[in-house]
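User: Continuing from earlier, I have the next pair ready.

Assistant: Great, send them over.

User: Here they are, in order.

Assistant: Folding the first of the pair now:
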Amino acid sequence: GSKARGVRVTDVARGSVAWQLGLRARDIIVAVNRAEVSDFKEFTEALKESSHATVLAVKRGDEDVRIVLP
């Protein structure tokens, strides 16, 4: 299949904030607040620009998942 562009989550500690919010290892973060991100630098810049609740668009296998960061 085609490889999704974005930021691959390599590990999430069980019980961590990221885990509690729903992020899992092997997730691929493809957008922050609807702005596509293709690498870690774009991802961190998009997070810095976010001034309110942040929505991550995540590809999990064949599933599209939305994760809201408070």
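And the other member of the pair:
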Amino acid sequence: LYAVKPDDDLNNAMKIIAQHDLNQVPVISQGKLAGILSRANVINFLQLRQELGAKRERDMKKPGASPISPQ
């Protein structure tokens, strides 16, 4: 059984999924099932991250835009 932990790196999880031709992998925390990570979850996450990054770049190009830094 291939599994990942909640704090595992996403790249590592994707390597496991790809190397073993899996569509999903269980997420195990303290010996118990904490969730399921699927290829679709990862693809949706990456797509959303790319879209948000592109939106941020467009917003920064607008006149009067300034970067917001955490305080």
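Worth noting for the second one:
Residues 53 and 59 are 10 Å apart (CA to CA). The helical segments are 10-19, 39-60.
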